Fold:
Amino acid sequence: MMRLERRPDIPLSLALSAPIGAVVVSLALAGILIAAAGAPVWEAYQRLFLGAFGSRLAVTETLTRTTPLILTGLAAAVAFRARLWNIGGEGQFYVGALAAAALGSEAGLQLPGYALVPVLMIAGAIAGAILLLVPLLLRLRFGVDEVVTTLLLNFVAVLFVSMMIEGPVKDPMAFGWPQSVPIVGDAILPKLVLRSRLHIGLLVGIGLAILTWIVQSRTVFGLESRAAGLNPRAAAFAGVSLKRILMTIACISGGFAGLAGAIEVMGVKGYVTTDLSPGFGYTGIVVAMLAELHPVGVIVAALFVATLFVGADGMSRALGVPSFIADVIVSLSLLTMLVALFLSNFRIRR
Amino acid sequence: MTGSGVVLRLDAITKRFGSLVANDDVTLELHQGELLALLGENGAGKTTLMNILFGHYTADSGSVTAFGRLLPPGHPRAAIAAGIGMVHQHFALAGNLSVIENIIAGTERMFRWRSDQSKARAKLAEISDRFGLRVDPDARVGDLSVGERQRVEILKSLYRDARILILDEPTAVLTHQEAEKLYETLRAMAQKGLSLIFISHKLHEVLAAADRVTVLRGGKVVAERRAGDTSKDELAELMIGRRVARPVRDKREPGPVVMQATATSIVAGGTAKLSDISFELHAGETLGIIGVSGNGQATLGQLVCGLARPTSGRFELLGQAVVSPSPRRFVSAGIGRIPEDRNANGAVGEMSVWENAVLERIRSPRFSVAGLVRRAAGRTFAQTIIDRFDVRGGGPDTPIRLLSGGNMQKLILGRSLETTPRILIAAQPTRGLDEGAVAAVHEEILAARRAGAAVLLISEDLDEILELADRVQAIVKGRLSPSVPIGDADPRRLGLMMAGVWQEAA
Structure:
């Protein structure tokens, strides 16, 4: 008789094979859909790969898309580790973007270039942090479930941005299009590769991921927040202030998501519209799960997801397969990842 | 009761989990009307054996025969049909349903318009009468006490016509009085012709309740004794495999007062958790707080561990009134703390041994500099504890949940004692531990006292209090009795104090 038994501990090889296995399974499942759409599966995936990495332009586009995903992925990973269920990355992204655009415009802060860029980034982060602190305070004070509040605040935030770009920060030169005033030249992020859209935001994302890893594994705050996430009662008994840990985590998580929005405005678009994000906040949750909440894993997972989205466009152009297939693969990979994570806790015994 | 027929026979049962042999050629017989105790330390294979008998596990070899018929392995339904009932340590009851609904659940056909409870009620009433198991059939299970819920579990088995009843650690969740009552019930059931096996690692209850004792050690049956022909010492030796030296308490003169509560009360959520409690704790003495669990021990533990602030009254630590308590402040003031529930409060299971060892003092310069953890220092500290307190089952980097209860407790004890505390708070320090680990923990507590520490021992175990404490106070409904020197306290007097009668005792 076959029987599942709980594993005493999870070896590293298995920790790595869970996401890889999940990705393989979801690609195989999506292959059925590609075949159903009438395209050769193997060629479709080749096209997808070429679409993401087949040219200098493709590579820079993929990395450009990776940048916000690293940050929203970190936002989810950091929060989930402390059992703070921040589903509001999308809203935090938008308020961060709006803050950067409003303060970085002609009428905004009058600062020299070298100061303006970091100030705008911090402004975006603060805006995102505030949007997450509100639901956290509601949870701490009244026990309101933050899954619901953060999720619903996404819609509030997007509608607020919509209101602002139709009103106070509307660009009068945009022929009536609902978009914000553009940021000044000094606020635009330097390019990483000339004649491409790739900007230094990528380095900011990678740097913050590594910094997060160091903080989590080496500092007192990292140790305390891990304890608070794993067993709040034992952490409180040992003298860890759960409230303070959660507030700090909320600032970091919301801050990352807000920063993602600010960087997207400063690096790519130059202004805010309500289609600035193709779901970066939500996709960040998938990225975090694929990375098993590990900050360095977030970089890899973000690259994978960006590859799918950028590559799927190439595949779609070449073979006529709808590019929505990327969404399907990303969703499937989240589902298979959850199954894989569950199963890697067990082993099969005869 | 002997001489009557064998109703259940386990024959040469062997079960391996990987390289671990949980049951090694175990043969066991149960007679009609007999109360058999299965005694063994945690991990001796008792629960595995009963799970094989009940069909939850399949044995690698061996067979189970009930009432002369071979049971097919791996089929709990067949075991139930053969008249075997099992009461697990963790009850399988739906708290939002009534007693009668819980009892008949699963016995009715699923597709019926309405359930007919009248027959069930009559049958239940008849069973209740016969065995003296009184429970209101319409009470909501969620409102019942733990003892009553256990009665419902037993009734559930009897309702399914069980003639053999297996109880896994039935007293683990019960208060002293409830346990006494349970033995009475079990004996009555045996006298009425039922056959019972109960699993336990508590020597005194095995001796008090059972007809016959089978001792399991390392998966093997090492001995069988009639309860009348054996003693606590012999059973302990059989169970552990070596002699356990009971630690001895020496006489000491108490030192100055290091912790003092004067008419201290704690009110939380509108109810008084502690009312007007007063105690004095001296250096070099052990003050025992005895009481049935749920009488305010948890709040008292929070008060003395720095997790709760007194609502009124005075609480002094080392001569100074405590105004804003915090666990960190208490730890750095030299208080070693052993929490009541080691899994919930004492350790973060997923974190390593060394991280658990340093968590409560992580901000001290010994273990962190400028916010960075000194991991080498933490690992060394953990290794010192492991060596000094004989913690087995892993090194500094092992996740602490992989340690057994006894070893986890030794680590928690060790992290408090390694820095030579002035006060040691021990709340239920040996709950759920086996005899060997109990002796080790007791020895360490006595050693701390010998080193001059003041020990506050909160326990519901009479034997433990009598063995360790110099003075004892009873806690009843959030109130503390006056203190009684241990020389004047016998089990009867302590029992009265635990029932709230201390006017006579004073």
